[in-house]
Amino acid sequence: LCNSDSLPDCLVEDQLTRLAAALYGLVGVAVLDCVSLPICTQLTQGDYTSTVFWQRGSDGESFATRTVAAELPRDMAKEIFTYLPEPQELDPQSFQDMVTRLELGSRTAWLVDFYLGSDLDLEFEMRKLKAMLSTMEVGRVSCARHPAVCQEMSVSRYPSVAVFKAGGGHEVFHGAVSALAVAQFARESAKATNLRTLSPQIFPQLVTQGADGSPAWFVDFYAPWCPPCLRLLPELRKASEMFDTVVRFGTVDCTVHSALCRQHNVQSYPTTMLFNVSRPSQLFRGDHTASSIVDFIQDILNPQVVKLTEETFYTSVGRKPLDSVWLVDFYMPWCGPCQVLGPQWRKLAKMVSDLPKVFVGEVNCEEEQELCRQQGVRSYPTIRL
C-alpha cells in the first residue's frame, strides 16, 4: 500500500518484481495508490505505507488480513510463507491409512516429503507446494521420529520426495528440490497411475509371478546419477498412460536395490525389459522415447515378426508355396548391429503385414545353433530372402 515516492518505505519497481517472482504461482502482488485512495489508512491502522497480506478464509468469502513486518523482498516472501498452510505431519498409522485409502480406490494423490532434521528453506518449499498443488494432499514424514516408515520405503537420501498415487503405487522425485520442479513432477506422476516404484519385496510376486493379474510388466532399471536415465523417466510416464491392465510399468533404483539388479544381469543404465509370465523377458533396445516404447510393447504382445526354430523353419520356409516370400534375419542377441536392426525389422514386418504372401521371420542363432550352422550363417546379422 504505497505507490508514491513521497511516502516512506515504498518498494521500488525492482523490489516489487523480485517479490512477485518469489511468490509466483502462490500469492498475487499488487500496488494500491495510497495518495488518491484514503482507504489505505483504514487497512493499515493509520499508516500510509505498509505491506498487507490478505488470505481467503475457509468459507471462501471472508479474508484474514496481516501486516507484513519485513522490509526486504526476500524477508517479506519468507514471512508470507509462514502464513501459508503447513503440510500434514504423518506418523506410521496415518501414513499407512493414506496408502490403504489409495489402494482401495481413493483418487486423491499425496506428495510426501521424507526428511531428516530441520531445514527452513525446505519447509518453505513444502509450504509453497501445499499451495500450488490444490488437487493433491501434501504431507511430511520425519525419518528421525519414524525410522521404520522410511526404512520400509527404502529412503536412502534426504530430502526424499515421493508421489503416492491412486492404486497404491508411488514414484520418487530425482533432482534438486524446488517448488516449481517438484510441482511439475507431482502433476505428471499423479496422472501416470500405471507406473510405480518396485522393491525386492514386491518385485517377484508382481512382475515374475503376475500376482496382480497383469500378464506383462515393462521395467526400467536405472541409477539416479545417470542423465539418460532421468531423461527416460518422463517418457516412461507417457508410455504407461497408453496401457492399462495389459501392461504395467515399474522402475527399480539400482543404487538402492543393487542385488535385484544383479539378479537380472543389469550391467548398464538404463536397462529396460518387458517381463511376461508366459515367456522369457525381452530386452528393450530402441530409442528412449514414449513412442518407441509403445511400439516395442505392441510388437511383443502382437508380433508381426515370426520367431523361427529349426522345426518351424523347415516346415514354414522350406516348404513355402512358390508364390510366397520369406525374409529372414539370422541374429545373435549380443550383436550390436543386430540390436540396432531389431526395431527396424519389426517396423518392416508391420509395413508388409497387409501383404498375404509376404512373411518376415527371425532366427536367434544363440538358441538355434544347429539351424544357423546348416544354413551357413557365419556373421550377424545375416538377412536372406
UniProtKB/TrEMBL annotation:
Domain of life, source organism: Eukaryota
InterPro entries per UniProt: ER_disulfide_reductase, Thioredoxin-like_sf, Thioredoxin_CS, Thioredoxin_domain
Spans through the membrane: none
Signal peptide positions (record): none
Span of domain Thioredoxin: 197-302, 303-385
Record's GO cellular component terms: endoplasmic reticulum lumen
MF terms (GO), sorted A to Z: misfolded protein binding; oxidoreductase activity, acting on a sulfur group of donors, disulfide as acceptor; protein-disulfide reductase activity
GO biological process, one term: IRE1-mediated unfolded protein response
Name this polypeptide is given: Thioredoxin domain-containing protein
Phylogenetic lineage: Eukaryota, Metazoa, Ecdysozoa, Arthropoda, Hexapoda
